[in-house]
Amino acid sequence: MTQIMLVGEQDLWLSGLVQIMSHQRKLNVVGQGGYESIGARMSRGERPQVLIIDLTHAFGRGLGMVERVRRTCPRVNIIGLVLATNQPALRRLIELGVRGLITPDTQESEFMELVLRVARQEYALTGSLAQALATCQLPGQASDFSSLTTREMEVALSLLEGKRMPIIARELKVSPKTVATYKYRIYEKLDVDTEVALLKLAIRSGLVDLNQIDSQPGLFEALV
User: Fold this and answer.
1) How far apart are CA 17 and CA 6, in angstroms?
2) Topology of 2-136 in CATH?
3) Where are the alpha helices (DSSP H) in 22-175?
4) Are the CB atoms for 219 and 195 separated by under 8 Å?
5) Per residue in 202-213, pLDDT tens?
6) Cβ atoms within 10 A of the Cβ of 109, count?
7) Which architecture does CATH list for 144-223?
8) Three-state SS for 29?
9) Would you say the pTM of this structure is higher than 0.85?
């Protein structure tokens, strides 16, 4: 039986997946919760075969967790729940070793098959994501954000989510000064000098979908 853990900040999403998988004899959910609770359980030695992470909200924190899990628990197979429009993020997740990618509209039967394939250490993506990933791998399609390290991408995404540096520092367990250093490096690599310029570049690169983000109205008002 495949042992599964679910990570996310949306209780409704977690409960829904648990309900879906409860009818499958081959799947057993052994844990569910936020980044802190599941991270703590894994640090104590718990190792599911498959870890499913909701990356549709707080992508920066999710990206950081993916990297930490791949570094400390390389035998754990990761599936990410993502948005199909976020092409630079798809590329980075595959580079980090994520084996499966699904979207919120993935059908139940496809989801079940994908989980079992990933448990066998195969790569599996829903159809729309496979097409999006193929597009961003074409020559000339590299994103400006591809030059960032994973930690820099994590900070950039947190900034784009409207988080202030003290909050980012607390979530990443580093000092505000360290976050400020990352922010400087991000601006230097991307040749931007304000958060509005960072947001515009993120929209052009496909990292941010203007129709799906409402966490920082002030920045969007500056775009009008």
Assistant:
1) 8
2) Rossmann fold (3.40.50)
3) 35-43, 59-72, 87-96, 108-119, 127-136, 150-160, 165-172
4) yes
5) 888 777 766 555
6) 8
7) Orthogonal Bundle (1.10)
8) strand
9) no
Residue 220 is predicted with a pLDDT of 36
Contact between residue 210 and residue 201 where contact means Cβ atoms under 8 Å apart? no
Structure-token pair, residue 146: 């591809």
> Both tokens of residue 63?
């990206």
Distance CA 14, CA 8 (A): 7
Q: Give the integer Cα–Cα distance in Å for 191 and 197.
A: 9
Distance between CA atoms of residues 88 and 202, nearest Å: 9
Distance CA(1)–CA(217), nearest Å, equals 46
What is the largest distance, in Å, between two alpha-carbon atoms of the chain? 53
Return the bridge partners of 32, or none: 6
| CA–centroid distance for 86 within its chain | 10
The first and second tokens of residue 175, run together, are 């000092």
Give dist(CA 152, CA 128) in Å, integer. Answer: 27
Average pLDDT, the chain: 82
C-alpha R_g of the chain:
17
* CA 100 from centre of chain: 12
Closest CA to 119 of 83, 76, 159: 76
- Residue span(s) of the chain under CATH 1.10.10.10 come to 144-223
Task: Report how far residue 62's alpha carbon sits from residue 186's, in angstroms, rounded to the nearest whole number.
Answer: 19
- Torsion of Cα atoms, 104 then 168 then 158 then 141, to 10°: -110
